[in-house]
# Entry
Amino acid sequence: MTRFLASIAAPEEVEIALSGGADLVDLKDPATGALGALSLTAIERMLATIAGRRPVSAVTGDLPMDPDLLRSRVEATAATGVDFVKVGLFPDPAIHDCIRALAGPARSARLVGVLFADRSPDFELVTALAAAGFTGAMIDTAGKGGGSLTTHLGADLIARFVAACRKHRLLCGLAGGLEPPDVPRLLALKPDVLGFRSALCGRNSRSGRLDPQAVALIRALIPPETPVPAAPSAATTVIDRIFVRDLVVTMEIGAYLHERGRRQRVSFDVAADVRRMIADGDDMRRVFSYDVLTDAVRAVVAEEPVQLVETLAERIAARLLEHAAIIRVTIKVQKLDVGPGGVGVEITRERSPARAGME
# Structure
């Protein structure tokens, strides 16, 4: 289950985040950087307001990679009583020394190491974090005006980070300028946490105040751990088909010897029959993102090379049918460089009745 993390900057935002359904509350000062830190006094005051109603994390600030400085700040932040301490890990020759220096505090505090999508993140650091006793790892963005997580990293790379965290039994978090349309495509990767600030401020800047309606939208897009009974609605359930056509990817594929070690163009057409609710209003909660289709293709292509287009089609279909809203998929895969025309396969796969009945 993926949990909804709301970053808040002031005591006045506490009740908005809690009543809006945030699963975790993150304390930071967005006006002073990607991981801008609140004062220790401010953290303690906000902890008193939250009063144990949600788990709380706090950031240590955008600090230089100095082992002694980081250790001191982490220990001071942990002493406030927060549940998690988030530490920014910027590319630097001293980064491994910094991680090792935090092994001591990690024995008594739950530390989360934060890598940055727009700073060429090294996913091998996940191994070092696990060895030092960190509780989790997260990807964020350092430059808040330069694009979101999904702008800087494709679904295949984000999936690789999530897999590395799972391998080392670390909690996995994704954040960084995320918007409502990013939610369904990232939920497909099953991270432990999705974190938000800008999207919760509505038309305000990320350094403005939370907007209750914006918080409610994100909550509605992330299924809660304990489902809330739906209120009576005039909405109608329908089956729609969403599709992506003529998505061309260059990749290595083929059973012939002359195809080994070279890349060729492969075209994908993907259609999915999905359940959705129709009602009045232009609302992101009532649609299924076509980005989920393109992400599935790219994630499967990024896996080890395959020989058969049939294998590609089956893997894409299986990945998409993991989504509860999808009841049927049609996948067409064509190799474009083997002759005068395209050759390939088209398959249709449906959710099994037994599996559909459990969801």
Summary: The chain has a mean pLDDT of 90. The chain is about 30% helix and 25% strand. The first strand starts at residue 3 and ends at 8. Residues 236-357 form a domain with the GTP Cyclohydrolase I, domain 2 fold (CATH 3.30.1130.10).
